[in-house]
Amino acid sequence: MKSITINGSKREHVGKVATKALRNAGKVPCVIYGGENPIHFSADELSFSKLVYTGDAHTVVVVLDEGNKIDAVMQDIQFHPVSDKILHVDFFQTQEGKEITMIIPVRIEGTAPGVRDTGGLLSRNKRKLSVRALPKNLPDFLLADVSELNLNDSITVADLSEETFNILHPENQVVCQVKMSRASMSIDDETEEGEEGAEGAEGAEGATKEGGEAKAEGSKEGGEAKADS
Predict the structure, then answer these.
(1) Is the pLDDT of residue 22 over 60?
(2) Range of the domain at 35
(3) How far apart are CA 42 and CA 48, in angstroms?
(4) Is there a single domain that holds both residue 140 and residue 165?
């Protein structure tokens, strides 16, 4: 997994007044858990752009004032409900040889024949999955190749699993699948209705024809009877 470096400064004060002053200065208050004691620090908001506004997952190296480097992963982030500015970030310190759990995005690759050739619709049931592994074995993303999916085919968690990490979801959990689209279903319904209508018309035509033949035959017999009398 790729790593992003964030340069920060330890916080001497953690009260509301100090936190507000940091935010006014364009800084983001942060905390690192998982060590002996929580580490409070702040960093420029721009430092988080590559970590937050991306489709892939990343680990983090937090570099503090004294040059101390801490390996971590982002655990939680809070945004302002109106401005979307980053208000606070929680990190969890990682340790070599100790597994951690992260939310990993699912990336779709390829074009499904069921979509291209049959008019199906690709449904994404799970866009992210919880993965547990050693930090060095965590993937940036989980790749779902749909290039062989026909109509009603699917990719499950079992299809994405590897020996180096453990996906914390049932193996039969559907990640994505090709379903019949509503347009295709409408076309099929119209086709069935057309076929039924054609059969009905054919039946009515047959009945009319048979009725006409019976009427003609009856008239013929009546004429013959009248002639005999």
Answers:
(1) yes
(2) 3-94
(3) 11
(4) yes
Over the stretch 142-175, which tens digit does the pLDDT of each residue have? 999 999 999 999 999 999 999 999 999 999 999 9
Which residue, among 21, 13, 4, 80, has the nearest Cα to 41 in the 3D structure? 13
- Strand-pair partners of 70: 62
Number of domains within the chain: 2
Reply yes or no on whether the pLDDT at 184 is more than 80: no
Report the predicted TM-score, pTM, of the whole model to 2 decimal places: 0.71
User: Given this model, what pLDDT does residue 48 score?
Assistant: 92
Helix (H, G, I), strand (E, B) or coil at 206: helix
Rounded to whole angstroms, the Cα distance separating 147 from 83 reads: 40
pLDDT at residue 63 tops 50: yes
In a domain, 77, yes or no: yes
Query: What is the bridge-based pairing of β-strands 142-145 and 100-109?
Result: parallel
> Could you tell me the two tokens for 228?
């005999």
**Residues β-bridged to residue 161:** none
Amino acid at 94: T
If asked whether residues 114 and 164 sit together in one domain, one would say: yes
Report the Cα–Cα distance between both ends of the chain, in Å, rounded.
Answer: 107
Which pLDDT value is given to residue 64? Answer: 92
Sheet of 120-124: strand order equals: 120-124, 174-180, 154-156
Strand blocks (E) in the chain = 3-7, 9-10, 27-33, 39-44, 59-63, 69-79, 86-93, 100-109, 120-124, 128-133, 142-145, 154-156, 166-167, 174-180
